[in-house]
Specification:
Elements lengths: L18 H12 L8 H5 L12 E2 L5 E2 L3 E6 L9 E6 H21 L6
Antiparallel strand pairs: 1-2, 3-4
């Protein structure tokens, strides 16, 4: 028997990554040029170029890349207007993990932990 988790993973659209986000990602992947910098690395002052060869077109004619994400800055956890730019998947997800860990740490320190 498979163990169940105490939470349900929300679908893409419920997390705010539905149709409009996917359309923006398609446009960003289509417009990628060799040497465009990673948005997250550029914020740190590091030049980490992205390359067009990492983007392919599938049978449905959609651009796909398992290495690049459409990044939201300053982060959806903070709300407000977001800047969406391409970044390396690892840079984007590690940044999101850092933000989530800090939010959880503060909430535990403030006494909002589990009962």
């Amino acid at each position: 028997m498979r163990a169940t988790r105490s939470y349900q993973r929300r679908r893409t659209a419920a997390r705010g990554l539905g149709g409009p986000h996917q359309a923006d990602r398609q446009a960003a992947l289509a417009g990628l040029r060799d040497g465009d910098p990673c948005f997250r690395c550029e914020l740190r002052g590091v030049y980490h170029p992205m390359f067009r060869r990492l983007v392919t077109v599938n049978a449905a004619g959609r651009y796909v890349s398992r290495w690049l994400d459409l990044d939201h800055y300053p982060g959806r956890a903070f709300g407000g207007p977001q800047t969406s730019r391409l970044s390396w998947r690892r840079c984007n997800r590690s940044s999101g993990a850092r933000i989530g860990n800090r939010i959880r740490k503060v909430s535990r320190q403030a006494g909002y932990g589990r009962w």
